[in-house]
Write a structure and sequence with these properties.
The chain has helices at residues 43-51, 93-104, 109-118, 134-146, 164-179, 191-194, and strands at 3-14, 17-28, 32-36, 58-63, 66-67, 78-81, 152-156, 183-187, 201-206, 209-211. By secondary structure, it is α/β, with parallel strands linked by helices. It has a six-stranded mixed beta sheet, with helices on both faces. Residues 5-211 form the ABC transporter domain.
């Protein structure tokens, strides 16, 4: 397998603190990589750098042989969940996904309903997003990341706020995505994710560095 993602000497400082310290990392096409670390270890910052949402002080990121921030602002065909997405509080789950999908106009209403069901939400639910529980918000965030069938999936703590059924749903979804050849990077400290057979590799992150 070829390297789909290549990060070279990534360094990032925030308010005088080094949050990424000369990190180099490669991820093969179709690989399922887990970034393991405590809160504040730097694993979320790695996802932000790969996604193009954060500019580095030094170092480069290549996704599919294109330099992020130079040749491409953001990777093509990327699904991302970092913290809670900025959904519109007064919209239903469907209305929020419909609004986001209209930007690229890639998917139909039926496909939106299907992804809502796939993450374990009720496609007929008329509740506004502001009435959602934390678990429902997490599920909708995962739906948003998946809805355009991305080649690259970046998920930050995707099992947060989910009960055992929700965790199983997420793991089943990730298994299907891996079978499609999707490249997946998950930041997590959840044992259900770390010990899952579909994970190819676990990288430990601590104090902005990769550790053995």
């Amino acid at each position: 397998m070829d390297n789909y993602i290549k990060c070279e000497c990534m360094t990032k400082r925030l308010k005088g603190n080094i949050v990424l310290d000369n990190i180099s990392l490669s991820v093969k096409k179709g690989e399922f990589l887990v970034l393991k670390g405590h809160n504040g270890s730097g694993k979320t910052m790695i996802l932000r750098a790969i996604s193009g949402l954060m500019r580095l002080n030094s170092g480069v990121v290549y996704v599919d042989n294109e330099m992020i921030g130079k040749q491409k602002q953001f990777p093509d065909s990327m699904g991302i969940l970092i913290e809670y997405p900025s959904f519109i509080p007064g919209y239903t789950g469907f209305q929020n996904l419909k609004f986001l999908s209209s930007i690229n106009n890639k998917i139909s209403d039926e496909e939106i309903y299907n992804i809502i069901q796939r993450v374990g939400l009720d496609k007929t639910d008329k509740r506004k997003y502001k009435r959602y529980s934390l678990g429902m918000k997490q599920r909708l965030g995962i739906a948003q990341a998946l809805m355009e069938q991305p080649k690259l999936l970046l998920l930050d703590e995707p099992t947060n706020a989910l009960d055992s059924d929700g965790i199983k749903d997420v793991l089943d979804i990730l298994k299907v995505e891996k079978s499609k050849g999707t490249t997946i990077i998950v930041a997590s400290h959840d044992v259900h994710v770390l010990d899952n057979e579909i994970v190819d590799r676990i990288v430990h992150v601590n104090n902005g560095k990769l550790v053995d």
